[in-house]
Amino acid sequence: MFTITDSHIDFILCDLRAKGIRIDDLQNNLLDHICILAEENLEDGDDFEMFYRSNIPRFYRQQLYEIEEETLFLLKRRKCFALLSRLQFFLLLFVLLIGPIICWTIATLGGPGQKNDADAIIRACEGGFVFSLFPLVTLLVLFLTPERFDPLIPKGARILLGWRPLVEIVRP
Amino acid sequence: MTYSSELIKGTLKTIVLKLLADNKKMYGYEITQKVKELTQDRIQITEGALYPTLHALEADKLVTTQTEYIGRRVRKYYSLSAAGKTVSKEKVSEMAAFMNTMALLLDLQPKTR
After folding, report:
1. What are the phi and psi torsion angles at A113 (to 5°)?
2. pTM exceeds cut of 0.90
3. What residue spans of chain A are helical by DSSP H?
4. Would you put residue B43 in left (φ > 0), alpha (ψ -120 to 50) or beta?
5. By CA distance, what is A66's nearest residue in B?
6. Cβ B29–A71 below 8 Å, yes or no?
7. What distance in Å separates the CA atoms of residue B16 and residue B38, rounded to the nearest whole number?
């Protein structure tokens, strides 16, 4: 049976840190996992580093820090009250922008001083056009051109809504 | 035949909770091996999916942990908390009901008529 030495442990920990695993608990879990794999698959005198380098890629799809990112995402997700896709987030912003105008329109329908409902709707649309056109166009531009003008919310990002922070972008 | 990771991802929490309900305490590597053994290698839990799930379960206080030092290594054992036992039963029931529904939906069971 292969014996794990302190230098093997130092090597693994150093590599895990270099590859972006910073949570101590996660480091310890992965270290133990790799050590067991080596103990079960290697014999004394075998090349540990070669075994390590050929086996570590099976832990991830593209990069090892995906494990840390997924851990942090799951921990953050517990605290949020909504998880939105990029499209849903922009729809929410759209509704938040246009919502007050709609409410104002409904509130003014049939109110005193109105000649008729059509007048109220026309005035509301005029107000809506003036006050929300620019933000809505900005929103549309951000949504349609995510890579150049919207580096904060790239395609495939997930948006967490919570209290602290209120909005958090999880990059894909 | 092994199943796609997308298919397994949604069931991982249930799998881990059920295994911990059936075994007093387990560590990460042991969980992966147990799943391989029980499913005859058809389900292979990846390390990249298992450890984030275990951390989330711990943060949700559904599992409790014990650590054991093996030289300079730390082995972390996971076991179900009281809340975890309740959630485990709920998740297994939910999964069983879901599987029955899917069987009906996909016409995998012989019709009774």
Report:
1. 85, -5
2. no
3. 6-18, 24-41, 48-55, 65-79, 86-108, 117-144, 146-149
4. beta
5. B48
6. no
7. 13
Chain B residue with the nearest C-alpha to that of A26: B51
Q: For tokens 């929410």, name the residue.
A: A92
* Sole residue written with tokens 């695993």: A21
Question: Are the Cβ atoms of A33 and B60 closer than 8 angstroms?
Answer: no
- Higher per-residue pLDDT: B23 or A116: B23
Q: Where is average pLDDT lowest: A87-96, A144-153, B2-11, B48-57?
A: A144-153
Q: Is B105 exposed, middle or buried (0-12, 13-18, 19+ CB in 10 A)?
A: exposed
Give the C-alpha separation, B25 to B6, whole Å. 27
> How far is it, in rounded angstroms, from Cα B100 to Cα B112?
14
B111 touches chain A (CB under 8 A): no
B52·A71 Cβ contact <8 A: yes
Nearest residue, CB atoms, A33 vs list B29, B49, B71: B29
- Quick check: B68 contacting A, CB < 8 Å? no
| Residue B43 identity (one-letter amino acid) | I
Residue A110: the pLDDT is: 59
pLDDT mean across residues, chain B: 90
- DSSP 8-state assignment for residue A161: E
Q: Strand A82-85 to strand A158-161: parallel, antiparallel, or no bridges (unpaired)?
A: antiparallel
Q: How far apart are CA B41 and CA B46, in angstroms?
A: 12
Tokens 């599987």 — which residue? B99
Across residues B80-93, what is the average pLDDT? 95
- Compute mean pLDDT per 10 residues along chain A, 172 residues long, and list them: 90 94 93 94 89 90 88 81 84 81 69 64 70 75 66 76 77 70
